[in-house]
Structure formats: structure tokens, C-alpha cells
Design goal:
Elements (H helix, E strand, L loop, with lengths): L23 H15 L5 E5 L14 E4 L5 H11 L4 E7 H7 L1 H9 L5 E6 L2 E2 L5 E2 L18 H4 L5 H6 L4 E8 L3 H19 L4 E7 L3 H4 L3 H15 L3 E4 L6
Parallel strand pairs: 1-2, 1-3, 3-4, 4-8, 7-8
Antiparallel strand pairs: 5-6, 7-9
Helix pairs in contact: 1-7, 3-4
The protein binds thiamine diphosphate (TPP).
Thiamine diphosphate (TPP) binds next to helix 3 and strand 5.
Length: 248
């Protein structure tokens, strides 16, 4: 029998700790497949941040660095400058990237650090129990916003990827989602493009991935996907936000 797909070398074959319906595991697999296809297992260094994915160094079969909440882009800056020929990426949730680490991510893009950022946006603080994140939608319920997010007192959801795309140092920014076979394939393509641009010594790039948190949203996994497409995607449209210019 012909094997059409093998377990990625870049992933460790152990059960993951994620809740049913969480998309972190799918995103890990996509990153691993891209690393396998690009044959860069020994030249990849990932930076794990804080949040549900903080243990992803147990799942990736390449070098990983654990860093403090929000500081992954700063850590990745140092790693990349010491290892300019390695592929360096951060893996960050929205609480991590858009709240505690806002300064780090903005200035890393401004400096045009040649790193890739995988930004997993589920609109909530997952690991710590479903608190409101800067990306939570208006009227979205969270444990710290039991009546829903009120824009009068907490402002509006932050569109990080659009903001980062405005910076000269950012060469590529795309938002994708994990909801279907087609959208998963598109997400993989975006991750690959970001990694290829980095190895071609272009600048900073970010792939924002709209994802789900069934546990903290209080929905079944399939309902979560529908909710994500109807609500999160309504506020954060998917597509290429900034494309790498020809010959850049
Ligand atoms: C400086 C600091 N503040 C707060 C925390 C607690 N904390 C750990 S994970 C987390 C939420 C992470 O949410 P997100 O980045 O959205 O990732 P998710 O868990 O949803 O994947 C928080 C607030 C911490 N570890 N360090």
C-alpha cells in the first residue's frame, strides 16, 4: 500500500494536552509539515510563549526556547541575531501578543527583525480561564466580562495584524483560519510563505490564525467553528493584508 502521508518528523508522537476542538494541535502539525517539506529540522528554532501552547516544546521535535509572557519577539530577536541562518519563529496567543507583549511585537516589526510570527487568535485568554483579551469582540462574554465586553469601558478589539502590516519592516502579513480542509491548507501555505521569506532574508512576517476555544467559549467544537466564522471572522477578515513586493 502506498503511504500518502506520514507522521511529520518535526513533531513528537505523543498525545497533546489540548481540549477537544482546540486548534493548537492542527497548527502545530502544519508548522511541522512545513519544516519537513523545507528540510530545515536542524536549522529551526521556535520560541514558545505563555498560554495554552506554552508546552509546545514537548511536541515540536526541534530546538525551542521558552520565554516569558509576551516576550517571545524579543527573545526571537536575540536568537535570530545570533543564528542568522536559522529559521526562527514565535508561537503566540492573542493574550500574549496583543496584550502583555504589545510593545515587543510592535518594535520587533518596526525593526524589521527577520523572524516569523505565528499568531493564534481565539479572542480570549484560554489557559487562565477565559478572561477578556484585547481581541475579545464587543458583547462577547468572558469570565472578566460576564455581561459581555463593553466598548464604552474597555474599548474596541485590537487589529494587531493590520497595525503591524503598516510598519515598513513587515514584509508579509496574512490572516487565515482553521475551520475546514481548505482553510487549513491555506493556513499551511501562509506559514510556508512566511518561512520562505525569512530564509530569503526578507523582513518580519506574521500569520494570524483565527482559532477556537470551545472550553472557554462554552460551545461544542463544531459550534465553535461556526461561531468563529460568523463572529471572529466578521471582525477580523481573512486574507493577505500585506504581500511581499516582487524582488524585495
Ligand atoms: C506577566 C504575566 N502575566 C500573566 C500571566 C498569566 N497568564 C498565563 S497564560 C495567560 C493567557 C494567555 O492567553 P493567550 O495568549 O490568548 O493564549 P491561549 O491560552 O488562549 O492559547 C495569562 C494571562 C503570566 N504567566 N505572566
Amino acid at each position: 500500500m502506498n503511504k500518502i502521508n506520514a507522521f511529520p518528523q518535526a513533531l513528537v508522537d505523543v498525545p497533546m494536552h489540548y481540549c477537544p476542538g482546540c486548534t493548537h494541535g492542527i497548527i502545530h502539525r502544519l508548522i511541522a509539515e512545513v519544516i519537513d517539506e523545507m528540510k530545515i529540522l536542524k536549522e529551526t528554532i521556535g520560541v514558545a510563549s505563555v498560554g495554552c501552547s506554552c508546552f509546545n516544546y514537548d511536541y515540536f521535535n526541534f530546538d525551542m526556547v521558552a520565554t516569558a509572557h509576551g516576550r517571545a519577539p524579543a527573545t526571537a530577536t536575540g536568537v535570530k541575531r545570533v543564528h542568522p541562518d536559522c529559521l526562527v519563529f514565535t508561537y503566540q496567543g492573542d493574550g500574549d501578543l496583543a496584550s502583555i507583549g504589545t510593545a515587543e511585537i510592535v518594535h520587533t516589526a518596526v525593526r524589521g527583525e527577520k523572524i516569523s510570527v505565528i499568531f493564534v487568535n481565539n479572542g480570549i485568554y484560554g489557559m487562565t480561564g477565559g478572561q477578556m483579551a484585547p481581541t475579545s469582540l464587543p458583547e462577547m462574554k468572558a469570565t472578566t466580562a460576564p455581561y459581555g465586553r463593553k466598548t464604552e469601558s474597555t474599548g474596541y478589539p485590537i487589529k494587531m495584524t493590520e497595525m503591524l502590516a503598516l510598519q515598513e519592516g513587515c514584509v508579509y502579513a496574512e490572516r487565515t483560519k482553521i475551520s475546514s480542509v481548505a482553510s487549513i491548507a491555506k493556513t499551511k501555505k501562509a506559514i510556508k510563505k512566511s518561512f520562505e521569506l525569512q530564509l530569503a532574508k526578507k523582513g518580519f512576517s506574521i500569520v494570524e490564525i483565527l482559532s477556537t476555544c470551545p472550553t472557554n467559549w462554552g460551545l461544542e467544537p463544531l459550534e465553535s467553528i461556526k461561531w468563529m466564522e460568523k463572529n471572529l471572522e466578521g471582525y477580523y477578515p481573512i486574507g493577505v493584508i500585506k504581500d511581499a513586493k516582487e524582488g524585495e
